[in-house]
């Protein structure tokens, strides 16, 4: 395909990945981003020496990032300096009841053995199977455009899929190996990234445990936004033209062909192909004539969205004690909080939360002698998020954070910004204010996900965390590549 004009909407991981793959294959790519800076949910902002990553903070599956840059003859180290965290993270089960998760596998096994005799050995078996799932999953399954069941019917792959417990829940799978409550909480934690509880996530995703335990938790010095900076630089090198403050208001379609996009400013940009990396629902329901929508509002309403979140970006004017870079506060039971997210949407009575202090690893993200603190409470999508409610929850989690870490924090806060549903909607047109897209439930996997291609418009494609393969940074990177391959295959000149 030579010199096709491609418009990519959105500069998140998926849009950047799609744009770069297409530009590297001779397309003339213009990337349009509504915000003033790139990265989408992975933007950053700075305030008086504090540098805050606005969204993702866990760098998992380093091989996916490596492969992304290697595809273009580059290395991650050409763009950022990656270090492995040790401990990987801390899990807080209560006051004086904290597990620091070691990066070293033998120490990890010993920790399990200490909690439950025999669990160290069983972990080996669990991980051997999880490794197999990771390899087939990440190298094969997620790279499929999932437009037809026949993509999955090759005999070898079918056999592989049967061995991967597609139809068993993660929760049952973990309990086959372990019974200690702390181990179960720990092993069920990674699938929360996929937007549902372990009861509703297929055991295929124990591949996430392999990613966690065997591949490790990494951190790009300077912050997660360094990945975006690297991707933008590579995209520019390949010829992608970036336009910021360029919100698309309509994809103009004539006789089933997307012809151009119209920006909020009124400017029109011609296109041979449009790849929409903005939230799928926004594109499908607000950017195109309804007669071309892939799905009805009823369909969207029935989707299980991954959670939204209440976030706090905080500058503290002293160093903090007794916290690690990543801290999971599991000091309240998961059941009622999960119920408040998935079954009876409401603000949880006793929320679990996550606290990240990247300045423990990286002095560049806070002024000297100070700390960069990021707090996150996962929440049901579409809740009302008034200032009063945000403050109430700030109080609830700060009480616990101060008590468990044994120090005053609030009186040392010199900067605080909250972020929740209404911000996700305003900044990203996020459906129901979701943070992480669409959950990876069994009924929302592969061909059952919103399709990466419009069914009535032959040159309109979708990418990102609401389509295949799913939510999270590595899947979004892969999503951009998968859609680019489809565009290139179907639009040869
Ligand atoms: C708080 C938070 C924490 C997270 N933590 C992690 C983590 O630790 N690890 C991990 O792997 N994943 C994490 N995730 C998930 C991960 O960040 C996302 O899955 C990923 O960034 C999604 O990328 P995307 O390209 O699909 O979407 P986005 O990043 O949302 O990109 C879409 C882009 O489209 C733009 N856009 C929207 N409408 C228009 C329009 N009309 N015109 C032009 N542009 C438009 C938006 O501004 C945005 O830039 C987290 C997400 C959040 C929110």
Characterise the protein shown here.
There is one protein chain. The chain is built from 15 helices and 19 strands. By secondary structure, it is an alpha/beta fold. The protein folds into 3 domains: 209 residues, FAD/NAD(P)-binding domain, CATH 3.50.50; 108 residues, no CATH class; 124 residues. The strands form 5 sheets. The chain has a 7-stranded mixed beta sheet with strand order 7-6-15-16-17-14-18. It has a 5-stranded parallel beta sheet with strand order 9-2-1-13-19, covered by helices on one side. It has a 3-stranded antiparallel beta sheet with strand order 10-11-12, with no helix packed on it. β10 and β11 form a beta hairpin. α1 packs parallel to α9, α1 packs parallel to α15 and α4 packs across α8. The longest helix is centred in the N-terminal third of the chain and has 21 residues. The structure holds flavin-adenine dinucleotide. The site of flavin-adenine dinucleotide has 37 residues, from α1, β14 and α15.
């Amino acid at each position: 395909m030579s010199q096709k004009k491609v418009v990519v909407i959105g500069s998140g991981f998926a849009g950047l990945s799609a744009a770069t793959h297409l530009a590297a294959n001779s397309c003339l790519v213009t990337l349009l981003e509504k915000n003033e800076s790139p990265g989408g949910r992975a933007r950053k902002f700075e305030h008086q020496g504090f540098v805050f990553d606005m969204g993702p903070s866990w760098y998992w599956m380093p091989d996916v990032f490596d492969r992304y840059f290697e595809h273009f003859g580059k290395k991650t180290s050409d763009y950022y300096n990656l270090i492995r965290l040790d401990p990987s993270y801390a899990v807080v089960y209560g006051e004086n009841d904290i597990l620091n998760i070691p990066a070293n596998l033998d120490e990890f096994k010993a920790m399990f053995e200490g909690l439950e005799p025999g669990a160290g050995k069983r972990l080996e078996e669990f991980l051997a199977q999880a490794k197999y799932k990771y390899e087939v999953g990440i190298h094969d399954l997620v790279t499929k455009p999932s437009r037809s069941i026949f993509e999955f019917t090759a005999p070898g792959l079918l056999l592989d899929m049967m061995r991967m417990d597609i139809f068993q829940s993660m929760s049952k799978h973990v309990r086959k190996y372990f019974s200690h409550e702390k181990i179960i909480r720990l092993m069920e934690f990674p699938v929360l990234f996929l937007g549902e509880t372990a009861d509703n996530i297929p055991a295929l995703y124990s591949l996430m445990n392999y990613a966690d335990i065997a591949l490790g938790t990494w951190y790009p010095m300077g912050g997660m936004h360094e990945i975006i900076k690297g991707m933008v630089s590579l995209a520019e090198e390949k010829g992608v033209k970036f336009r910021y403050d360029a919100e698309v208001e309509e994809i103009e379609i004539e006789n089933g062909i997307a012809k151009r996009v119209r920006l909020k400013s009124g400017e029109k940009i011609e296109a041979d192909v449009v790849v929409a990396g903005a939230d799928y629902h926004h594109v499908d329901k607000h950017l195109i004539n309804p007669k071309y929508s892939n799905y009805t509002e009823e369909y969207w309403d029935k989707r299980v969205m991954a959670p939204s979140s209440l976030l706090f970006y905080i500058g503290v004017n002293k160093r903090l004690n007794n916290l690690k870079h990543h801290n999971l506060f599991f000091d309240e039971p998961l059941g009622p909080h999960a119920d408040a997210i998935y079954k009876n949407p409401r603000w949880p009575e006793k929320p679990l939360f996550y606290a990240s202090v990247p300045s423990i690893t990286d002095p560049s993200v806070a002024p000297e002698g100070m700390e960069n603190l990021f707090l996150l409470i996962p929440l049901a999508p579409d809740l009302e998020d008034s200032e009063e409610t945000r403050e109430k929850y700030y109080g609830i989690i700060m009480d616990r954070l101060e008590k468990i870490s044994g120090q005053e924090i609030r009186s040392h806060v010199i900067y605080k910004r909250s972020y929740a549903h209404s911000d996700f909607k305003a900044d990203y047109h996020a459906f129901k204010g979701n943070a992480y897209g669409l959950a990876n439930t069994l009924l929302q996997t592969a061909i059952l996900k919103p399709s990466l291609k419009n069914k009535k418009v032959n040159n309109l494609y979708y990418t990102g965390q609401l389509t295949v393969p799913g939510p999270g940074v590595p899947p979004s990177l892969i999503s951009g590549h998968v859609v680019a391959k489809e565009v290139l295959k179907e639009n040869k000149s």
